[in-house]
Amino acid sequence: MERISVDVCVIGAGAGGLSVAAGAVQMGASVVLLEGHAMGGDCLNFGCIPSKALLHAGRAGMGWRAAHDHVRATIAAIEPHDSQTRFEALGVRVIRAFGRFISPREVQAGDHLIRARRFVVATGSRPAVPPIPGLDTVPYETNETIFDLPDAPAHLLIIGAGPIGLEMAEAHRRLGCAVTVIEGARALGREDPELTAQVLDSLRAQGIRIENHTPARAVRGHAGAVEVEAADGRVFTGSHLLLAAGRQANLDGGHHLPRATYTSPELAQVGLTEAEARTAHGARLTVVRFDFAGNDRAIATAQARGLIKVMVVKGRPVGASVVGPGAGELISLWALVIARRLKMSDVAA
Fold it and tell me: Of 88, 96, 318, 325, which one has the fewest beta carbons inside 10 Å?
C-alpha cells in the first residue's frame, strides 16, 4: 500500500473536479486526483458536451449517422484538455481508481492511501431510475446510453420534462424521430412558468408532444415496442424509452451557480425565481423586466422573442431568469452581479 500525503485530494475528474485540481496545483498546492471511470466525467462523456453536439447536429440538418459522428468527433477534440496526460503535466498526481474514506482525513483508492489537508468531493451524479412497475423488464435508455443508439428511434418516449428530457426531445425531433414527453408534474417545474411557456410553445411547434401532470403508472413491452401507462389510464406507445426523471447524488452547489437548458429558445436561471423571491422577500421585491422586443439588435436579427426578469430587493438582484437566444451566455452577467452583491446601479453604470 503506497501512502501519499498532499494538500488537496480531489475525488472525481468531471468538470468540477478538474477545475479544482487545475486551479489548486497552479496556486502551488500538491494535488491528488482520483477517478475510477472516465476522465472528463459525465459532462464530457454523457452530458453537456454530447447533448449540445447532438442539438447542433439536428439544427444543422445532419442525418442520424452524421450527427453521431459529430458527437464522437466533438468528444475526441475535447478529451485531450481533460486527459490524464494534461493534468499530470500540470503537476497533478492522477490515480485511476475509485476512492473511499477510511477516516476523516484518509481515503483509500486501489493500492494507495491518501492523507490530505483538504478533500474535495466532486463525484457528480447518475441518472435516477424511478420506481415504475415494469421498468425492470423493459429496455430503456438514459443520458449515459442514448448517444450510442445505432439507429434512429421511430418514436422516442421520454419520461421526465426537465432540461435533459427536453434537450433530447428537441435533438431527436430535429433528427426525424417522433417524440412524446411524459411529465408527472410540470415541464421545467423548477423554472419560472412565464418563461418556460415560451420554451414549451416552441417545442410543441416543432412537433414534440408534451404531456404535463401525467405520472407514469406502469411500463411494459420489449425492444422496439414500448408502452407507458399513465395514472389516468392513457397509454403512450413508442419504439424506445428514455428515462430523464432527474439525477441521484448530485451535491447542492448553491444559488449563485447558473443553470441553463439549451432548447430553442434557451432558458437560464441564477439565484431566486420570481416565485421563490416573493416567498422569501414579500413586498420588498421588485421585478424588473427587459423584453427582447425592445432590443434593436434582436429585432434586426429576427430574434425578438425573449425576456429577462431580474428579481431585485433593496436595489440588489437576488435572482435572474432569461429566455431567448443566447440565454445561457446572458445569464453569466447576472451570476456575477449576484455573487458580488452588486446593485442594479452598478450594472447600469
Answer: 88
